[in-house]
Amino acid sequence: MIAGLSIENFTILHTAISLIAIASGLIVLAGMLRARRLPGWTAVFLVTTLLTSVTGFMFPINGLTPAIVFGLISIVILAIALAALYLKHLSGAWRWIYVTTALVALYLNVFVLIVQSFQKLPALQKLAPTQSEPPFLIAQAAALIAFLILGAMAARKFRPDL
Predict the structure, then answer these.
(1) 62-76 burial code (b ≥16 CB/10 A, e <16)
(2) pLDDT at residue 2 in the model
(3) Residue 117: what pLDDT?
(4) CB under 8 Å, gap of 24 or more: what pairs does 72-79 form?
(5) CA 52, CA 13: separation in Å to the nearest integer?
(6) How far is it, in rounded angstroms, from Cα 7 to Cα 87?
(7) Per-position pLDDT tens, the chain of length 162
(8) Fewer CB atoms < 10 Å away: N or C end of the chain?
């Protein structure tokens, strides 16, 4: 049991939080591309992304795993994004620092979504059973390229106070 839930139910909760983080993050990204802050969606994205990492640490763990490393990186990135947005109010360089850190946090969630999809969905698992096969690598490369392009565009366009 974790937080009063069976491991299965806790996994469902963790997954639901992660999916909300990804969906709200994509909405925030769309807002950035249109120079809009979307404060409500941004708060949902940042809180659920933080909760994704926190709930991930609650699973039974033995030693340092890639999931733990991703969670730690995500929390550090989110702390910077939160500071840039709520403490520095996107002033000066903090605007692009916020865009970069928010999108890195979103990318990490999408990266894990792709990993989990290839591990848990039978059709994808057949295509890449060891996650070193071309379909998995292509999916991860496409996500990375998309985030690099969209991130560069968002850093240029997200100027909500101008």
Answers:
(1) eeeeeeeebbeebbe
(2) 83
(3) 96
(4) 73/108, 74/49, 74/105, 74/108, 74/109, 75/50, 77/101, 77/104, 77/105, 77/108, 78/46, 78/49, 78/50, 78/53, 78/105
(5) 10
(6) 37
(7) 888 889 999 999 999 999 999 999 999 999 999 999 999 999 999 999 999 999 999 998 888 888 899 899 999 999 999 999 999 999 999 999 999 999 999 999 999 999 999 999 999 999 999 999 999 999 999 999 999 999 999 999 998 775
(8) C
Letter for the amino acid at 131?
A: Q
Burial class (CB in 10 A: 0-12, 13-18, 19+), 157: middle
Which residue carries 């659920």 as its tokens? 48
**Residue labelled with tokens 């409500």:** 40
Domain limits of the chain? 7-157
